[in-house]
Amino acid sequence: MSSPLMATYDRHDVAFERGEGAYLYGTNGRRYLDFAAGVAVDLLGHCHPHLVAALEAQARRLWHCSNLYRVPEQERLAARLIAHTFADRAFFCNSGAEALECAIKLVRKFHDMTGHPERYRIIAFNGAFHGRTLATIAAGGSAKHLAGFDPPVDGFDHLPLGDAAAVRAAIGPTTAAVLIEPVQGEGGVRPVPPAFLRELRAIADAHGLLLVFDEVQCGMGRTGRLFAHEWAGVTPDIMAIAKGLGGGFPIGACLATDAVAAAFSPGSHGSTFGGNPLATAVANAVLDVVLAGDFLPHVIAIGERLRHGLEGVIARRSDVLAEVRGLGLMLGLQCRVANTALVHQLLANGLLSVPAADNVVRLLPPLIIDDAEVDAALEIIDRSCLELANKAA
Questions:
Q1: Per the residue annotation, which of 86, 110, 129, 196 is the catalytic one?
Q2: Which domains does the chain possess?
């Protein structure tokens, strides 16, 4: 029987009926260690008690009203995000792509407000991924994602990642901003050198440009800091976040400084569902956990344990694996075999992972994993690599 769904995903033939912590339980009766976390979404694992309690309590009170009225949980979430970031203002939406759309619109509106409507072009970088809308696939610049959707939305110039000289040379009278992921996710788990982020800040300041960070995947504690750009000691003017913000409940946000956010006025932008009481209650519960004093140090420590273990696997299985890259619990294994082959072998052995560009397998576990779960994952990875090597022999 053919699926009633549009054929937009190449799905694995497995379905899950429940989850608990770092594990998913399939309808086939098997248990899977989840090192995909819904592509970096299930930040606190599955059915975290604090999130479940917050969701149930809010569901009994109010799910949705409208942004035509004040939403106290939304105001509280905005205040907490502002207190822990560079930002002064927040706009809530439903996804990372929407957060980036807001950022792109805000860039254009800011320059229009300040008397330079001709400034609309945004410098982005090869290997980027910023979402699936028409504007965000143009911002990403991937030929694969743009195929069949011509003409691409105008306004994006793509440069080699890390090339500051190319950035300076590309700036012209219509340049408005620089957009970058502090750690590229879909692009192959590539951390941007901190020095390059600092150089982008200096270039933006020197030329009157806005600096926009896409922390949809690398934010919300995944690298061991609340946001990945903190490792570089630099701040943007605008930042898009989503994924882990809701711990599995759809919510995104665009954060900005007062000077930039002033470009928006009533009617400039909006969202029907964005920041509703149910979504923001859950996101506040996520922040309760992530902002606890021992949480981010745990992410750093457990990330170091996982990375050290992966380096050992690579040393033993160098015929299958080339290197490990990334930060915290956002790690990628570059493969010498097809990355999809390793993803399928890991799945067969009970470990979920995610492919990425540059022949990389992403490991994006819930941030609550413990030593035993890291050790279990390492055993599966090692065994799966040996099995792939034996198949090739």
A1: 129
A2: 16-34+293-392 (3.90.1150.10), 49-290 (3.40.640.10)
Residue 307, amino acid: R
Run of H or E including 25 = strand 23-26
Token pair recorded at residue 274: 């964005």
Q: CA-CA distances (angstroms) from residue 21 to 24, 160, 293, 305, 377?
A: 8, 39, 20, 19, 14
- Residue 294 bears catalytic tag: no
Catalytic entry in 34, 42, 157, 214: 214
Tell me the average pLDDT of the chain.
97
- The tens digit of pLDDT for each residue in 196-225 reads 999 999 999 999 999 999 999 999 999 999
Phi, psi of 334, deg, nearest 5: -80, 130
pLDDT-derived band at 2, boundaries 50, 70, 90: confident
Determine contact, residues 122/178, Cβ cutoff 8 Å. yes
Identify the residue whose tokens are 């970031």.
85
E runs forming strands in 110-251? 121-125, 156-159, 175-180, 183-184, 190-191, 210-214, 238-241
Q: Per-residue pLDDT tens for 111-160?
A: 999 999 999 999 999 999 999 999 999 999 999 999 999 999 999 999 99
Query: Is residue 366 within 8 Å of residue 21, measured between CB atoms?
Result: yes
Minimal CA–CA distance to 286: which of 328, 251, 230, 244? 244
Distance CA 233, CA 230 (A): 5
Q: Which of 86, 243, 249, 382 is catalytic?
A: 243
Count the alpha carbons within 13 Å of 319 in the hemisphere toward its beta carbon: 10
129 is catalytic: yes
Residue whose C-alpha is closest to residue 177's, from 245, 253, 102, 236: 236
Residue length, the chain? 393
Phi, psi of 92 (to 5 degrees): -105, 140
The yes-or-no answer on residue 144 being catalytic is: no
- Is the distance from CB of 24 to CB of 345 less than 8 angstroms? no
Q: Exposed (0-12), middle (13-18) or buried (19+): which is 300, by Cβ within 10 Å?
A: middle
